[in-house]
Structure formats: structure tokens, C-alpha cells
Design goal:
The complex is a heterotrimer of chains A (about 350), B (about 500) and C (about 300). Chain B has helices at about 45-50, 75-80, 95-105, 110-125, 140-150, 170-185, 195-205, 225-235, 295-300, 325-330, 350-355, 370-385, 400-415, 430-445, 460-465, 485-495, 495-500, and strands at about 5-15, 20-30, 35, 60-65, 65-70, 80-85, 160, 190-195, 205-210, 215-220, 250-260, 270-280, 280-285, 310-315, 315, 330-335, 365, 370, 420-425, 450-455, 465-470, 475, 480. Chain B has about 500 residues and is of the alpha/beta class. In chain B, strands 13, 16, 19, 20, 21, 22 and 23 form a 7-stranded mixed sheet that branches. A 6-stranded mixed sheet of chain B has the order 6-7-8-3-9-10, with helices on both faces. Residues about 495-505 of chain B have low confidence and may be disordered. Classes of the chains: A mainly alpha (about 350), B alpha/beta (about 500), C mainly alpha (about 300).
């Protein structure tokens, strides 16, 4: 038997050590999972984590990793403020979808006008606004009706999923598409396209935005009053109220940030890598970003690394599916395990584990 | 000499970094009212939890009626006839009285039987209580009755009472003492834990005094002076704060019919409170816990919104001002609860300094925090108020209660407020630290600030305040000069306000 | 329009049952002071396990039992993490949902079965033949009645039994319950397992009775709606029935309207259950939540 003892101070070592331990633990658990599925665990691990970055065809995979990581990071950065403050926006997937819809709708309304200087910025702005507005629904309901934001934001994901399907066969359907579902391909509409800045690199403006969001979040969190208020509200809500933090305003601001960033991720995706409004556009980024946010310990730099790691599991998972026949669902399980391990080992930062018999253990 | 009921022999219990009890030995007789006296942190709670089966001692034994007594859990202790009335944490707000009582019993009878037993016990001991009421709606005194009846229904041989009077009016205290004496005469021993000396002198026939986990003395409190006991408890001569004779200046803070609804279901509404506080004076507000103290502090600090034309600072209506706007104007406050209200336990002292001092100490610029300056301020508070900590980068939760309290009060005083509102400034603080906090409040007033000190410690209010007012059910009686007030008058002010004033329509 | 109101009401009871089952489990969990947001994940795992076991044994009742075990097993992961490793309940619950969705889809790869697995309907001599009422109330499969019995049983347990009193005490103020010597963790772990079993059973009802088929993502948010209904019901078992049936009504009605081919595109109709849930959350002022809901308990002091 072991016993927990609260540390007077959070452990500095484990603050950094815990996520690493969690990753190692998950890889071990994952290997077990792969073995149960009848795959060579070592080979599968290599295909997932090594090949996309350093394998034979890594040149083709690396841009994909970057493209996947960018929206995850962008969304997770947005979520991290709310999560720190105890505001649980878990409907980022919905805000991501709506951002794509509003951005694409704006761009397509100008089709085929050639004015990139006007249309592209407006498209991006509308995408961000769309996500923001969608996030404001749970935020305002929470502030004015004390409605649980977890449930409302989540319900709105299902609504957004239905909405994008309706758009793909309705208002935004490509008039020249012979009745097939799906909008025009925005990548072919030069005024609104978001192509790779260097062809084939995978680095589009969304990637740049993701990196900028990391820097901005870092500054806000460590240097700015806002970051302090967010942390304070999350740790001690009453102390925050005493300090002068207005809880309603904090909810609105945090939800606005996460909604806008999710919307931004959506519009960069629909004008770039994905190209079209389609029923299959939603790819679970909004949910995976929750794992990214926690894995990065809600810290901007951690989120950057965690986003890349999760993107790796996607791309590596695809490779493993093609070459080893590893089911795609196994990767989802794997991501879930990652979150569990991380949450579990997090204990070590705030508690000491002591063996109940003689002797001490860290 | 009474027959022995419970003997404690060499009880020792150590926690990392602290020895809570060290070789504690004493005996409680049958039917004896035995005081356990000591400051916060002296090890009283640990000792009592050991007897009640919540803590297992590292070494030492207990004998109950001469047989070895080693309760593995509270159930076992209760089965052996030990009952305990807790200071905190033992009632369930959303459940009714009978359910709360049933939870404290091993084999509770069906609800209807239980209700009638509750009624009969409450009549026998003069503790009126309705079994069907929801506990969250009861007053502090009534809540305590629930706990006492819960114990009495088990026919305990030893009843442990942990700081039972901190929530009672003097009249309620008198009633409680009658009940306890009655119990004692029927053969129930009482272990009475307190740091209030006068109470112990009135009630108890034997006292064991703990300091830093050790028994440092025993006495018959009926024949020992309060001062002697206090010095045994503290281990040194006491320093009494000095009031440097001051003159009241112009009115700084004025409340005109301050009313506010209860902020949550079990809170208290403020009812038309009027009060003016002048520069250089300390107004003490006494009252039993839960009569609107928290709400009054929240209304003054700006944490809780109130209507217009109710709160004036320098004649200016500040009802709509946010906490930081009020601080900028010179009104600072320190709520009662240090952990999670006045301070954030998981944050460092530097961060906790920023918590309230950002405005007056200009710790932020364009929204960006000047951490170096914040650290500097935290260091100043630590130095000026003798806060025991390795440095400002330590988490607030690593400080002892008393040290954190010094930090919290120091943080506000060092911002040189023009009006300071404090609630329970010395709660859970050792006697010497309490004396220094009181001195700091007196000094602040002497420099011309207006101070509102809310406290349940009447001795404290008598010592430092110029005028005294009682808060009862969210109403504030008109303040009276402290000089010449007797404990009896104050008791009437605290408990009997309803009798003296016609009910509001 | 010719929607038959009798069939509609009968269908309503069937449509409400999975949500009611999942919600009654979660209600017990929340009354014990634990917020498990993993209902959706446990439900879908139950759905796939129930389907596979039911078809493997060619007995739907083995399927239901298997699903309950699967749900409980998954909830044990949540219990271990939140009660022993003190993890954040919100994050762990979300993780459980994500893990459950992945796990179910993994287990369900190629899970097809003979779709003629039939769960018998109640057929009482006189009662089931009462016109209108008999058709609406007394011609369902046994699980519908099991769900109602569970509600009644839970009500009795919580308000009349000693163990139920302790469970409420633990949920209301875990420090006080601990001080009185009750085993907070044990109580909570048991409640979580019960919640998991109910969610698993609820899932298998969808895959074995309501649809009945295994499709990836088959629960489509029912677990979340169950969570919403617990709030709507103010943690009161009887009000849960009202909430679940109200929601079931909206679902059945929109399905019927879709079948009717109204002017409204079907996509917008299928948003109805989710929008209705939001509306209900806004309109209904929830009562007071259990005092310790969502807080971690560590018996240190």
C-alpha cells in the first residue's frame, strides 16, 4: 500500500517530468494495445513515432505533421485560458466547424472576384468571428442563466455538424459541381486560398498564426494581468472575486478567445489543407485539442510540443494503418490513454508518494 | 478524587516536519469537566482526533476503564462511549436535522422514533430543535445543538467539545454551560477544548495545558488566574497592545441604510445598516458567526454589488465601484478566510501580494505585471510583519495559519489604506502574533486611518476598538463607546437586539 | 399529416429509455459528489459490447448484462484515476468519453450480427390489451420497465435507506462524512461503478433494441443529454423521468416529422434534440447541486 502526502510546494522536477513520464507510460500501454491487436508492438511504435519524422518518406510526411499540428495548437492555446480559469469550453469542435462555414461563406460570396487584399483578410476575420459567436452562446447562457457551459458547448458541436452537412448540400453547394455535395474548392479561388508559403513545406498562414498564438499566450500568461487573473480564478475563485476579477467578464473573454482561435483554425483549414465545406470536414480536432491542452499542462510551450506529438500520432497512425493494417480507432484509444496517463502522473507534482511500510519512495 | 475514566499514556504523533503530540500523559475522571488548553498549533486537535479514532498515535497507549483502548476508527470510539462535537466540518447543510443525527449514530432507529428521541433529549437538556428542519437554514448555535444531541443520543461517557463557544453569544454560552454541568452531574465526563481562559475558569475543574505538543502544566482553573494560565500556554510574558490615545477626525466611511440580499442560500441578508467611521478611530463589530459578517465585508470590499447611495467614502458614493477602484480610493479589506479568499493557497507570496496591491502599489503598468516590484513588496510585508517563511517565492499554503494571517493583514496595512475593513484579524493566530496584529491596527488608526474591525473575539474588540456595535441577523445596532461597556451589556447587544428594537416591517 | 399519436407515445417510451438509464446511473454518481463526464464513452462501449455478446450468445439478455459489465469496467478506470490518483474529474471524464469512443470503434470493427435478435415484448393478458393505454404503456420490452424500476429503486435507496443517506452525506460534504468515519472513497467507487453499469446497459439498449444495429458513433450524444437531464431534474430521480420523456418526445416527434417529409429540411429537424436540451437547461433553474460535486477528496487531515 502507498500513501499520499501533499507537498507544501508543487514539485519543480515533476512539473516537467510528469508529461515525459506520461508519454513513456502511454507508449508502453500502447505497445500492449498493439500487441493485443496482433501487431508487432515495436514496429508499430516505430511507424507511428519515428517514420513520419525520420523515415524513408519523411519528406512527404513532415509537412502533414505540421498541417495537423497547427489547428491543434491554435485551438488548444485558446482552450488553455478557459481551462485554467475553470471555464470548460469543450465545444471547440463546433466553433471550429462554424469558423470554417462563415469564412467559406464570406469568401464564396465574392466568387469569382479577384481582390485578395480584401477578400482574404475578410475571410479570415469572418472565420474567427464565426467561432467567437458560436462560443458566445454557451458563454452568455452561463453568465445570464447559469447554464452549464460544458453541456451547451457540446450540444452545439452536434448542431454544427448537422449544419455543415446541410451547407454542403444546400446554401454552399458548388453550383458547377453536378449536384455532388460540397462547396467550391477554395484552394482554387486565388483571392481566398491559403496555400503553403513555400510549396510543399506544409507551412501555411495557419501555422504562422499558431506559432504567434503560442508567443502571445506565453506573454499573456506570465507577464500580463489577464494571465494572472485567469490563473487566480481557476485556483481560488473567491480570492479572485476579492481581488477584483469580474467572473462574468472572465467567462466571456475566455470563451471569446477560445472560440475565435477555434474559428481561426477552421477557416485556415477550409481555405488551405481541406479546401471544401463538406460533411466530412469535421475531423475531431476540437476534441483532440483538449488532450493537447492538458498534455501541454495548459502551458503555451507545452501545448506547442503536445500539438506536434498528437499530430504525429495522426500521421503515424495513418502510416500504420496503411502498412500494418492497424485500425484507425486504435489511435483514438491511444490518445485517450495518453490523457489518462498524463492526468494520473500529474499527482506527483503536488503529492509525495510514500510507502506505508518502512522506507520512502519518491 | 474521581474514578479514572480515560488515561492517556505517552501519546506521540509526528507529521513530517512537526511533532504534533509528544509524550502526552494525563487522566480524565468520570463525570469530570476537564479542560484541554493551548494555542492554535499546540496539538489539541491531533490529541482529540487520536481519542476519537481519526488519528493513530505513533507510540503511547490509552486506557478506558483500565482496559486498553485503541479505536481503529470513529465508529469504534463511538461504540466505546466517546462522543465528539466538532469545531468544523461535521454537518451536512442539505440534509435535515434528523438525518444529520442519524449519520452520527451506529444503529439509528426509524425516522419517527428518532424524531421523538431527539425531542425528548432536547427537552431534557434545554436544547430546543426541530428534527425536520434543513441544517443549512439553522443558526450557528442551533447547528451546534444538532451536534450535541447527536452525541447525547449515544449516551456517551466522554463528550469531547472542540472550541464550542466560538459561535455562541454570551447568553447561549451560559445555556451551554448549564447543559454541560447537568451532563457532568449525571456522570458524563467532558473534555473541553478551548483557548478562552475565562470560560475554562467558570466551567472546568481540571485543566491540562499543551504547548508545542507537550503537556506543560496542569492546574485547577477555578483557583488559577487567567493570566497565569495564559503564560503557561504561551510560554512567555504577554505583551498587551497599547492604545496611543487618539482623536477622531472627519468621517471617512459612511454607510447609509446598506441593504443587500443574501448572496447564496445559506447566507445572510444585510438589513439597512448605518454607520459612520471617522479618521483615527477603530469601530469594533461583534456578533455571532453567520450574522452577516462575511456579507458586510464583501459589500464594503466591492466583492458583492450593492445599490447606489448606500456606501460613501469621503462623501462619495462608491456603491458601483469595483474592488480595485475602491482600493485606489483608499479602501482596503481583509476577509476572514485566509485560504482561498484573502489569499490563494497555491500561489506564491509574490503573487498573493499582487492579488490586492496592484493598484495602490502600482505593481502593473499597462496591464503588464512588474514582478520585481511585486516581489519587493512581498519582501517588505514579510519583513515588517515578521512572517516566517524562506522567501516570497514560497506558496502561501506552505505557511502556517498564523504566518499567513500576518501576511494578509500586513499586505493591506502596508498599502497605507485610508479605510481598512478586517474580519477576524487574529483568528487562529498565536497570542504573540495576535498582539502584534492588534498593535498594527492601532498604529494604522493612530496615523489617521479609519478601521472597521469585525471579530467574534469580544476581548479583542474591547482591547482595540473605540466604539462597539453588534451585528445580528444582518442588522447593525447603533454603536456605543467601548469604554464602560460590560460583558453583560455586550451579551445583550449581541443576542437580544430583537427584543430591544421593534421588528422591521 | 397523419402521425399516429398512440404509436408516437409508445415510441417515445422506447426512445427515452436509454437516456433514462444512463441518467439514473449518473444521478447516483453525482449524488455521491462525483461528476463523471464519461457517460457517452461508457454508453457506446456498452453498445458495442452488448451487441457482440448478444449476437454471440444469441441471447439479448446476456448482451445487456455484458454491456453493464463493460460500462462498469470502463468506469473503474475513471474511479481509479479520480479517487486514488486525485485527477481532475472534468478532464478525466472527457478523456473517458474520448477513450470510450475509440475503444468502441476498435472493438466494433466488423461487428455484424444476425439482425433478427428479438427482445420479447411484454404481453400481459388483459392489461396489454387495454385500448390506447395498453398500447402506449404495456407492450414494451422488459428493459423499459427495468429503467422505471431503477428510478423507483434509486429514489427508495436515496431517501429511505441508510446506505443512501450515507451516500448523500458523502456527496454533500466529504470532509464531514470522513470525520464521522465513513469511507468516502469506497462509497464513491461503488457509485461510479453503478453509474458505469447503467450507462453500459443504456448503450446496449440502443444497439440491441432501439436501432437495432451496431454503427460507429451510434449513441450520437445521448450520454451528454443524459448528463443534461440530471441537472434538469435537480438530482431528483422522479423528475428524471419527466426530463427523459420530454427529450424522448422531441426525438420521436422530429423523426416522425422527417418521415412526413415536411418543408423543413431533415438536417434542421435532426438538430432538434440538441437545441431542446439547451433550451431545457436555460429555462429550468436547477436546484442546488450536491455540495462536494466535482471536488477531489484526499483523507489527509
Amino acid at each position: 500500500m502507498f500513501k499520499l502526502e501533499k507537498r507544501p510546494q508543487p514539485s519543480k522536477v515533476w512539473t516537467f517530468g510528469a508529461p515525459i513520464l506520461a508519454v513513456v507510460l502511454t507508449i508502453i500501454l500502447g505497445m500492449g494495445l498493439f500487441a493485443i491487436l496482433g501487431k508487432d508492438p515495436i514496429l508499430a511504435t516505430k511507424v507511428i513515432f519515428w517514420d513520419p519524422l525520420f523515415g524513408e518518406f519523411a519528406d512527404l510526411d513532415r509537412p502533414d505533421v505540421i498541417k495537423k499540428a497547427a489547428p491543434l495548437i491554435l485551438i488548444a492555446i485558446g482552450l488553455s485560458f478557459g481551462f485554467r480559469a475553470g471555464i470548460w469550453n469543450i465545444g471547440a469542435e463546433g466553433q471550429y466547424i462554424i469558423g470554417a462555414i462563415t469564412g467559406a461563406a464570406l469568401a464564396l460570396s465574392f466568387y469569382p472576384m479577384e481582390a485578395r487584399w480584401l477578400i482574404f483578410p475578410l475571410t479570415i476575420l469572418f472565420g474567427a468571428l464565426g467561432g467567437l459567436v458560436w462560443a458566445m452562446i454557451p458563454a452568455l447562457l452561463r453568465v445570464y442563466f447559469k447554464t452549464n457551459e460544458i453541456l451547451v458547448s457540446l450540444m452545439l458541436v452536434y448542431v454544427a455538424e448537422v449544419l455543415i452537412k446541410a451547407m454542403a448540400i444546400g446554401a454552399l453547394r458548388d453550383p458547377d459541381g453536378f449536384g455532388m455535395p460540397g462547396s467550391r474548392d477554395l484552394r482554387r479561388f486565388a483571392s481566398a486560398a491559403n496555400p503553403d508559403l513555400i510549396t510543399g513545406s506544409g507551412i501555411h498562414l495557419g501555422v504562422v498564426a499558431a506559432l504567434l498564438s503560442v508567443v502571445a499566450a506565453y506573454i499573456a500568461l506570465t507577464r500580463h494581468q489577464f494571465g494572472f487573473d485567469v490563473r487566480l480564478a481557476g485556483q481560488s475563485p473567491r480570492a479572485a472575486a476579492f481581488s477584483g476579477v469580474n467572473p462574468s467578464r472572465l467567462i466571456l473573454v475566455c470563451m471569446a478567445i477560445s472560440g475565435a482561435l477555434a474559428g481561426l483554425a477552421g477557416v485556415f483549414e477550409v481555405t488551405g489543407p481541406s479546401g471544401k465545406i463538406l460533411g466530412s470536414f469535421p475531423t475531431y480536432y476540437g476534441f483532440t485539442a483538449i488532450i493537447v491542452a492538458f498534455l501541454g499542462r495548459l502551458h503555451p510551450v507545452g501545448i506547442l510540443l503536445a500539438g506536434i506529438l498528437l499530430a504525429l500520432t495522426y500521421i503515424g497512425g495513418n502510416l500504420a494503418e496503411q502498412s500494418l493494417g492497424l485500425p484507425a480507432a486504435a489511435i483514438k484509444c491511444f490518445q485517450g490513454l495518453l490523457l489518462f496517463s498524463l492526468l494520473g502522473v500529474d499527482l506527483l507534482t503536488n503529492y509525495r508518494i510514500k510507502l506505508r511500510s518502512k522506507g520512502k519512495a519518491q | 478524587m474521581r474514578e479514572k475514566l480515560l488515561e492517556l499514556k505517552g501519546l506521540t504523533k509526528a507529521y513530517p516536519g512537526v511533532v504534533a503530540n509528544s509524550d502526552v500523559t494525563f487522566t480524565i475522571g468520570k463525570g469530570e469537566i476537564h479542560a484541554l488548553l493551548g494555542e492554535n498549533g499546540a496539538g489539541k486537535s491531533t490529541l482529540v482526533k487520536t481519542i476519537y479514532g481519526l488519528v493513530k498515535p505513533d507510540t503511547g497507549t490509552m486506557l478506558l476503564d483500565g482496559a486498553e483502548f485503541r479505536p481503529a476508527e470513529p465508529k469504534a470510539a463511538r461504540a466505546s462511549g466517546i462522543g465528539m462535537v466538532f469545531q468544523h466540518f461535521s454537518l451536512f447543510d442539505a440534509l435535515n436535522v434528523a438525518e444529520n443525527i442519524a449519520l452520527g449514530m451506529e444503529n439509528p432507529p426509524p425516522f419517527s422514533d428518532l424524531s421523538s428521541r431527539i425531542k425528548s433529549v432536547s427537552e431534557t437538556y434545554g436544547l430546543p430543535l426541530d428534527p425536520a428542519r434543513i441544517v443549512g437554514d439553522l443558526s450557528a448555535g442551533e447547528r451546534q445543538r444538532v451536534e450535541i444531541i447527536r452525541c447525547l443520543l449515544q449516551d456517551p461517557r466522554l463528550l469531547i467539545m472542540d472550541e464550542p463557544t466560538s459561535v455562541l453569544t454570551p447568553q447561549e454560552v451560559a445555556t451551554l454551560f448549564d447543559t454541560l454541568r447537568l451532563l457532568s452531574s449525571k456522570g458524563t465526563a467532558i473534555l473541553y477544548i478551548s483557548h478562552k481562559l475565562e470560560e475554562i475558569r467558570t466551567l472546568c475543574e481540571h485543566a491540562t495545558i499543551l504547548r508545542l505538543g507537550k503537556v506543560v502544566g496542569t492546574c485547577d482553573p477555578r483557583e488559577t488566574s487567567a493570566r497565569d494560565m495564559a503564560e503557561m500556554m504561551v510560554g512567555s510574558k504577554l505583551h498587551t497592545p497599547t492604545n496611543a490615545g487618539k482623536k477622531a477626525g472627519e468621517v471617512l466611511l459612511e454607510l447609509k441604510g446598506l441593504s443587500a440580499p443574501a448572496p447564496h442560500r445559506f447566507g445572510t441578508a444585510l438589513k439597512s445598516i448605518s454607520l459612520s467611521v471617522r479618521s483615527g478611530e477603530i469601530v469594533g463589530i461583534g456578533g455571532v458567526a453567520g450574522n452577516g459578517q462575511d456579507e458586510l465585508v464583501a459589500a464594503l470590499s466591492g466583492e458583492m454589488g450593492t445599490g447606489a447611495q448606500m456606501i460613501f467614502l469621503d462623501g462619495r458614493d462608491i456603491g458601483a465601484a469595483s474592488p480595485n477602484e475602491r482600493r485606489a480610493l483608499g479602501l482596503c479589506a481583509a476577509p476572514e478566510e485566509r485560504n482561498g479568499h484573502a489569499a490563494a493557497p497555491d500561489m506564491t507570496l509574490t503573487e498573493n501580494a499582487l492579488l490586492t496591491a496592484r493598484t495602490r502599489k502600482q505593481l502593473t503598468k499597462n496591464g503588464f505585471v512588474d514582478w520585481e516590484k511585486a516581489r519587493e513588496f512581498a519582501r517588505d510585508v514579510i519583513a515588517a510583519f515578521d512572517v516566517r517563511t524562506p522567501g516570497p517565492e514560497n506558496a502561501a499554503r506552505s505557511l502556517s495559519g498564523g504566518n499567513l494571517q500576518k501576511f494578509v493583514i500586513g499586505r493591506e496595512i502596508m498599502q497605507k489604506p485610508r479605510v481598512l475593513v478586517v474580519n477576524q484579524p487574529t483568528w487562529g493566530v498565536d497570542a504573540s502574533a495576535a498582539a502584534s496584529i492588534r498593535q498594527a491596527l492601532l498604529d494604522l488608526a493612530a496615523e489617521g486611518a479609519a478601521v472597521v474591525c469585525i471579530s467574534q473575539d469580544l476581548d479583542e474588540l474591547m482591547e482595540i476598538s473605540d466604539r462597539f456595535a453588534a451585528l445580528n441577523g444582518g442588522e447593525l445596532a447603533a454603536p456605543r463607546p467601548t469604554e464602560g461597556l460590560t460583558v453583560e451589556t455586550i451579551g445583550l447587544m449581541l443576542g437580544g437586539a430583537h427584543d430591544m428594537e421593534p421588528a422591521h416591517v | 399529416m397523419d402521425i399516429n399519436p398512440i404509436l408516437l407515445l409508445a415510441a417515445l417510451m422506447v426512445a427515452s429509455t436509454p437516456i433514462l438509464l444512463a441518467a439514473i446511473g449518473e444521478l447516483v454518481v453525482e449524488r455521491a459528489g462525483v461528476l463523471n463526464l464519461g457517460v457517452e464513452g461508457m454508453m457506446i462501449t456498452g453498445a458495442v459490447c452488448g451487441y457482440i455478446v448478444g449476437h454471440g450468445t444469441e441471447n439479448p439478455y446476456f448482451g445487456f448484462v455484458g454491456a453493464a459489465f463493460a460500462g462498469a469496467a470502463l468506469s473503474f478506470v475513471f474511479a481509479a484515476l479520480t479517487q486514488f490518483l486525485l485527477t481532475n474529474q472534468v478532464a478525466t471524464g472527457l478523456g473517458l468519453t474520448m477513450f470510450g469512443l475509440g475503444l468502441a470503434s476498435l472493438i466494433g470493427q466488423g461487428a455484424t450480427g444476425s439482425s433478427d435478435l428479438i427482445v420479447g415484448k411484454l404481453n400481459l393478458p388483459i392489461i396489454s390489451d387495454i385500448p390506447v393505454i395498453g398500447r402506449i404503456l404495456f407492450q414494451h420490452d422488459p428493459i423499459v420497465y427495468v429503467s422505471l424500476l431503477l428510478v423507483a429503486g434509486t429514489w427508495w435507496f436515496l431517501s429511505k435507506s441508510r446506505a443512501g443517506l450515507i451516500l448523500r452525506a458523502v456527496g454533500e460534504n466529504h470532509d464531514a462524512a470522513h470525520a464521522l468515519g465513513y469511507n468516502v472513497r469506497l462509497m464513491r467507487v461503488l457509485a461510479i461503478l453503478f453509474g458505469g453499469a447503467c450507462a453500459g446497459l443504456a448503450g446496449s439498449y440502443i444497439s440491441l433494441v432501439r436501432v437495432p444495429q451496431w454503427i460507429d458513433g451510434i449513441t450520437s450524444g445521448a450520454g451528454w443529454i443524459a448528463l443534461a437531464i440530471v441537472v434538469f431534474a435537480s438530482w431528483n430521480p422522479w423528475r428524471l423521468i419527466a426530463g427523459a420523456y420530454l427529450f424522448g418526445g422531441v426525438t420521436v416527434l422530429q423523426l416522425n416529422l422527417q418521415a412526413e417529409g415536411l418543408k423543413i429540411p431533415t438536417e434542421y429537424l435532426s438538430m432538434a434534440p440538441y437545441l431542446a436540451t439547451i433550451l431545457v437547461l436555460v429555462v429550468i433553474r436547477a436546484g442546488r447541486a450536491p455540495g462536494s460535486l466535482g471536488k477531489s477528496f484526499h483523507p489527509s487531515s
